[in-house]
């Protein structure tokens, strides 16, 4: 059996590669990909060679990491999955993926693949929120209605039961989606955001201007978490940070993907969560290079891209 993968071989240069799938180890499963996603905030800076955290550049690079599919073979020691099960895993833009069973996330039959694909980044957003651990009555500000920002709003509302969630987002349609997911007020203009008002804040935009506004908007001894990748602009501490004795923490990856998935899948089961609306563009697997080219040139700017394989 042949596996087809998409590799980044140079700046803005993608290439298809093919290799024979090796025999499974005893703790591995083989997944036939049904759908995947482009995580634009992480992948586009790599494609454009604009990620300041990725130096020196080395090639080739694998692309993508969110994949959903059907288990078609299992190693001899695998117990958590059987043939025919559905799973989400971290192997990227490939039509088949081999992963350890401990690294795959079981997906119940009644969960649509769009929502299933978001379980990874939802867990990543949840980790940052849990680090801050706001109370229901605290006021929380989120910057950037991209995938991470919107999933952060969703977790704040649905898991933490926070009543007062505001967002800074200049794009009108994205702001409307933020409201549907739980944001109370969406500021299109950063200047509208009140000073010394919020107990907690989460930075999901990747831009220093937004980071500056967070410092201005937090109360004395307020806390913020940086959930963006730090691959766009450097963040600069402002006089507000020192004057108000603020606290800033970072967060990366998820807190526990298996445990989070149990809550997440139960939460969205049988509901119109609006989360599938994050996928503003849908393509097929072979259209990936063209889609990256369009995004790299600024012709399109979707929140997230759904990639269908069959």
Layout: helices, strands, pairs:
Blueprint (H helix, E strand, L loop, with lengths): L1 E9 L2 E8 L7 E11 L1 H9 L12 E2 L4 E8 L11 E4 L6 E5 L4 E3 L5 H5 L1 H14 L6 E5 L3 H12 L5 E5 L3 H10 L3 E3 L10 E6 L4 H10 E9 L12 H5 L3 E4 L6 H12 L10 E6 L3 H9 L7 E5 L2
Parallel strand pairs: 9-10, 9-12, 10-11, 12-13, 13-14, 15-16
Antiparallel strand pairs: 1-2, 1-4, 3-5, 3-7, 3-16, 5-6, 6-8
Helix pairs in contact: 3-4, 3-8
Walk me through this protein's architecture.
This protein is of the alpha/beta class and 310 residues long. It folds into 2 domains: 2-110 and 270-308, Alpha-Beta Complex (Quinone Oxidoreductase, Chain A, domain 1); 121-250, NAD(P)-binding Rossmann-like Domain (Rossmann fold, 3-Layer(aba) Sandwich), CATH 3.40.50. It has 9 helices and 16 strands. Strands 3, 5, 6, 7, 8, 15 and 16 form a 7-stranded mixed β-sheet that branches. A 6-stranded parallel β-sheet has the order 11-10-9-12-13-14, sandwiched between helices. Helix 3 (119-132) packs across helix 4 (147-158) and helix 3 crosses helix 8 (257-268). The longest helix is centred in the middle third of the chain and has 14 residues, at 119-132. It starts with a strand and ends with a strand. The mean pLDDT is 95.
């Amino acid at each position: 059996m042949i596996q087809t993968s998409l590799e980044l071989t140079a700046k803005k240069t993608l290439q298809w590669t093919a290799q024979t799938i090796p025999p499974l180890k005893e703790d591995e499963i083989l997944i036939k990909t049904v759908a995947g996603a482009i995580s634009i905030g992480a992948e586009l800076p790599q494609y454009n060679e604009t990620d300041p955290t990725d130096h020196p550049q080395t090639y080739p690079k694998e692309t993508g990491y969110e994949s959903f599919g059907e288990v078609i073979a299992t190693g001899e020691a695998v117990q958590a999955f059987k043939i025919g099960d559905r799973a989400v895993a971290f192997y990227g833009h490939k039509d088949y993926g081999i992963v350890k069973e401990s690294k795959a996330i079981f997906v119940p039959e009644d969960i649509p693949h769009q929502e299933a694909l978001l379980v990874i980044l939802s867990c990543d957003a949840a980790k940052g929120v849990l680090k801050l651990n706001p109370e229901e009555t605290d006021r929380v500000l989120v910057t950037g209605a991209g995938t991470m920002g919107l999933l952060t709003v969703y977790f704040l509302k649905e898991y933490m039961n926070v009543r007062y969630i505001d967002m800074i987002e200049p794009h009108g349609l994205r702001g409307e989606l933020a409201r549907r997911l739980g944001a109370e007020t969406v500021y299109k203009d950063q200047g509208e955001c009140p000073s010394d008002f919020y107990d907690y804040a989460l930075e999901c935009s990747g831009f220093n201007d937004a980071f500056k506004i967070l410092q201005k908007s937090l109360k004395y001894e307020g806390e913020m978490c940086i959930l963006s990748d730090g691959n766009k602009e450097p963040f600069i501490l402002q006089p507000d940070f020192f004057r108000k004795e603020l606290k800033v923490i970072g967060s990366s990856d998820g807190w526990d993907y298996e445990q989070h998935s149990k809550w997440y899948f139960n939460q969205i089961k049988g509901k119109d969560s609006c989360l599938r609306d994050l996928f503003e563009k849908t393509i097929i697997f072979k259209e990936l290079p063209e889609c990256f080219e369009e995004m790299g040139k600024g012709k399109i700017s979707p929140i997230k891209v759904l990639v269908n394989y069959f």
